[in-house]
């Protein structure tokens, strides 16, 4: 309590100094008015803290944030940044918010991925994608003996046609990616 009384006294002295500086600034120089601004701001913030209003406002804001998970504009806590959206997506997927292979385990072999999870926590795209090589060749439109450069060229052409940003079908785009991953590994 003694601290609050002391802070209120300091705030009163700063408020008086601010009033004096304002009067001098009006009559003498505008520079003195500029000096009155930070003095007045300091007086206000010291009074705001010493009066207990800052503490009340912070508690009220915290209680309001706990009571409603979203703001009035529909945004969720954590914001709408890419990282917040990814964290919410991973939480819905049930992998504990971890990016990368589940549990940090790696399967045998250098550069291989844990089954079922890719490097960003999504589904891994590898030869175990469930697509037979014959279906993959038909999807990309290549012959059975096609070289890796032919597969890559066909993949690039099909991606341009099927990419959702270019007006293509998202499911077909995913199918093209799975086909390429299957043929790339073989």
Automatic annotation (TrEMBL):
SMART domains cross-referenced by the UniProt entry: DnaJ
Q: Which domain of life is it from?
A: Archaea
Where composition is biased (Gly residues), the residues are: 94-103
The protein's UniProt keywords, in alphabetical order, are: Chaperone, Membrane, Transmembrane, Transmembrane helix
- Membrane-spanning regions, if any? 5-24, 30-50
Compositional bias of type Basic and acidic residues: which residue ranges? Answer: 153-166
Name all J domain ranges. Answer: 135-186
The residue ranges flagged as biased composition, category Low complexity, are 104-113
Residue ranges for the region (Disordered) are 62-175
Which InterPro entries is this protein grouped with?
DnaJ_domain, J_dom_sf
Q: Name one Pfam family in it.
A: DnaJ
Q: What is this protein called?
A: J domain-containing protein
The organism that produces this protein has a lineage beginning with:
Archaea, Methanobacteriati, Methanobacteriota, Stenosarchaea group, Halobacteria
């Amino acid at each position: 309590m003694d601290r609050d009384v002391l802070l209120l006294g300091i705030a009163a002295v700063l408020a008086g100094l601010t009033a004096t500086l304002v009067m001098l600034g009006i009559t003498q120089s505008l520079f003195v008015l500029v000096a009155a601004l930070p003095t007045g701001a300091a007086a206000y913030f010291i009074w705001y803290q010493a009066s207990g209003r800052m503490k009340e406002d912070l508690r009220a804001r915290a209680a309001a944030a706990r009571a409603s998970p979203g703001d009035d504009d529909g945004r969720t806590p954590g914001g709408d940044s890419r990282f917040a959206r990814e964290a919410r997506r991973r939480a819905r997927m049930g992998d504990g918010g971890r990016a990368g292979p589940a549990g940090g385990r790696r399967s045998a072999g250098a550069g291989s991925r844990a089954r079922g999870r890719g490097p960003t926590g999504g589904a891994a795209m590898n030869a175990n994608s469930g697509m037979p090589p014959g279906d993959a060749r038909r999807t990309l439109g290549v012959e059975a003996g096609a070289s890796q450069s032919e597969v890559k060229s066909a993949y690039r052409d099909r991606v341009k046609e099927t990419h959702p940003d270019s007006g293509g079908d998202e499911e077909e785009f995913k199918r093209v990616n799975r086909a390429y991953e299957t043929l790339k590994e073989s």
